[in-house]
Amino acid sequence: MDKVFQALSSAPRRAILDIVRDRPGSSVGHVCKFFDVSRIAVMKHLNVLEEAGLLISEKQGRTRRLYFNSAPIQMIHERWTSEYSALWAGHLTEFKRQVEAKQGT
User: Fold this and answer.
1) Closest CA relative to residue 50, chosen from 81, 24, 17
2) How many CA atoms lie within 13 A of 93 on its CB side?
3) DSSP class of residue 9?
4) Using CA atoms, how far apart are residues 28 and 26, in angstroms rounded to an integer?
5) pLDDT tens across 39-89, in order?
6) Which residue ranges make up each domain of the chain?
7) Sorting pLDDT into bands at 50, 70 and 90, what band is 105?
8) What are the phi and psi torsion angles at 97 (to 5°)?
9) In the CATH hierarchy, which top-level class contains the domain 2-69?
10) Cβ neighbours of residue 1 under 8 Å, at least 6 residues apart?
């Protein structure tokens, strides 16, 4: 999870994910067109995203195709929402019970 949070902490990396999400199979060259930095700088961002599991790259000849993998983000979402939803649902149920008990007296 730390690698996913680290990868998402960077605005350029989030922009890369948006680009690839909107155009699955984007080439590295296509992604580089959106940034005013060197190809090497973009490649460093791509590597961080791949290490976090957010990007999947596929080599096709000399072209590297990029695909967005939402599974790591979904796993984080489920972990946090499931755990805390259950916690707060329990608190709200207890609160409701207390309010109804006071109204009944």
Assistant:
1) 17
2) 6
3) T
4) 7
5) 999 999 999 999 999 999 999 999 999 999 999 999 888 877 776 676 777
6) 2-69, 70-105
7) low
8) -60, -45
9) mainly alpha
10) 72, 75, 76, 79
Q: Which residues pair with 63 in a beta bridge?
A: 60
Let me know: does 51 contact 3? Beta carbons within 8 Å: yes
Tokens in use for 89?
A: 């649902």
Phi, psi torsion values for 74, nearest 5 degrees:
-60, -40
Spatial CA neighbour of 4 closest among 88, 92, 77? 77
Q: Write out pLDDT tens, residues 71-82.
A: 999 988 887 777
CB atoms within 10 A of CB 39: 12
Number of helices and strands (H, E) in the chain? Answer: 5, 3
Note the pTM of the prediction, 2 decimals.
0.75
| Structure-token match 């709200």, residue found | 92
Cα distances from 73 to residues 5, 17, 25, 44, in angstroms, run 9, 12, 20, 20
